[in-house]
Amino acid sequence: METAKPKNIDEYISAFPKEVQVILERVRGTIKKAAPMAEETISYAMPAFKDSGGILVYFAAYKKHIGFYALPTGNEAFQKELSVYKSGKGSIQFPIDQPMPLTLITKIVEYRVQENLEKAAKKKA
């Protein structure tokens, strides 16, 4: 039986145990604060934030980590800070049993907002 895809971020978060919900809400709040104009959405069955330039970041909960997806450019720009985490080309794994690096998440989101603004400006030009 396939589980229903969440319709929104609230629905996504509510599917997890309470202690994971708290972490997800912290990550969500951090993203909202760093990108107040961004719109919440569900994309690829994960919470995502988008603006006029497209998707900024995605995040998702797993058994042992919170996946954070800043697309390849967000990861490349913060390689040094991210070196302590398991990461792929566009993914980062923040262990659930450690404090979430909210300051780093803020920097990455702000970087992605700026990147999307520049991308949108180039399109207009």
What do you see in this structure?
The chain is of the alpha+beta class and 125 residues long. It has a single domain, classed as Aspartate Aminotransferase, domain 1, CATH 3.90.1150.200. Helices cover 46% and strands 24% of the residues. The chain contains 5 helices and 6 strands. It has a 6-stranded antiparallel beta sheet with strand order 1-2-3-4-6-5. A hairpin with a 2-residue loop joins strand 1 (39-43) and strand 2. The longest helix is centred in the last third of the chain and has 23 residues, at 102-124. The mean pLDDT is 93. Residues 23-112 form the YdhG-like domain.
Keywords, separated by commas or semicolons:
single chain, 125 residues, alpha+beta, Aspartate Aminotransferase, domain 1, six-stranded antiparallel β-sheet, 5 helices, 6 strands, globular, YdhG-like domain-containing protein, YdhG-like
